Amino acid sequence: MRCDFNHQSLLQAARYLQDGKLVSFPTETVYGLGADATNDRAVASIYNAKGRPSFNPLIAHVPTLEAAQSIGAFSDTALQLAKQFWPGPLTVVVPLRAPSSISRLVTAGLDTIALRVPAPEKVRALLSEADRPIAAPSANLSGRISPTMATHVEADLGNKIAMILDDGPCQSGVESTIIDCSTETLCILRHGPVTQEEIASLFPGISSNRISVTNDTAPSAPGQLTSHYAPTKAVRLEATDKKADEFMIGFGAYQGDLNLSPTADLIEAAANLFAYLHQADESEAKMIAIAPIPYSGLGAAINDRLARAAAEQPTPKAGDLS
Ligand code: TXA
Ligand code: MG
């Protein structure tokens, strides 16, 4: 349902978000597809609605810098950037504080998190009312262009989400600038409305190589290439039984030590995926076996993630090289 973004619809939208439902809201960049970032199932339903064939980490939207700092650990540099550009179209990637209530599906299993405080006052009021961080990628079907009008969202996702808050066209139409502040060297992961020059001018004393820029010709989504969580143990896919030295992640009738979804529900399986991979990795077992997962619907994204996990050969730690 598309409705005017007013006080009444704001309250209703906040309730929907608290109930784990999807709500689209307009930011200064594009319309976002929001869900409770602390609710695994709600976050999984973002991927389901978008039909995304892979899991990328998502941006968590919060109403204030204080809220952001309760989730991520801000270096002095990150703090300086946030104070300068928030509220506004800048996303910072910072280490995730532990323990965290953030769904592992939001960070795609990483120990860093992307955070942003959006500019529109109404959106920050919605985030305050919802009283939890809201994960929100652009509100379009996978492979379609980012929506800058509520009618775009309605055309792509109208029948899949609880509510679309319509506040007219977005101001910028270009997604937020993403800057990785989790390492010594600042790195722009995605160019956007806050420019490299604006960022560099904040740190006059710093040499230019302090701010590096990712290759624009690389596959568009940052985090897709290098910054993905992969288990440290070898992974065996399509496993229909468990071997002695394995931790088995089951699905449906294939039980395992943990079962992604005993009822073979792919949204539930996606919701559990990263948490279970971590548990398997932390277990005593030497290897990880994973039951077959169907390729339909969200299964495509789950299998994509698992194929990457299996392809990444664990590298021996320095101490192991005798
Ligand atoms: O303007 C925007 O940022 C819009 C509006 C709705 O706020 N949102 C948006 O979200 O573009 P999304 O999910 O489409 O973009 C998130 C990007 C992804 O490309 C992802 O790879 C990167 O942020 N990202 C998220 N967390 C990351 C992390 N921990 N490390 C590296 N990259 C990360
Ligand atoms: Mg997008």
Overview of this protein structure:
The radius of gyration is 20 Å and the shape is globular. The chain is α/β, with parallel strands linked by helices. It has helices spanning 7-18, 40-50, 65-71, 76-85, 121-130, 150-157, 196-202, 266-282, 299-311, and strands at residues 2-4, 23-26, 31-36, 59-61, 90-95, 112-116, 134-135, 163-166, 177-180, 186-190, 211-213, 234-236, 246-250, 258-259, 287-290. An 11-stranded mixed β-sheet has the order 1-8-2-3-7-4-6-5-9-10-11, sandwiched between helices. It folds into 2 domains: 2-208, DHBP synthase; 234-311, Rossmann fold, CATH 3.40.50.11030. The N and C termini lie far apart (63 Å). Threonylcarbamoyladenylate is lined by residues 27, 29-30, 32, 56-59, 91, 93, 107, 110, 112-114, 136-138, 175-176, 178, 189, 221-223, 227.
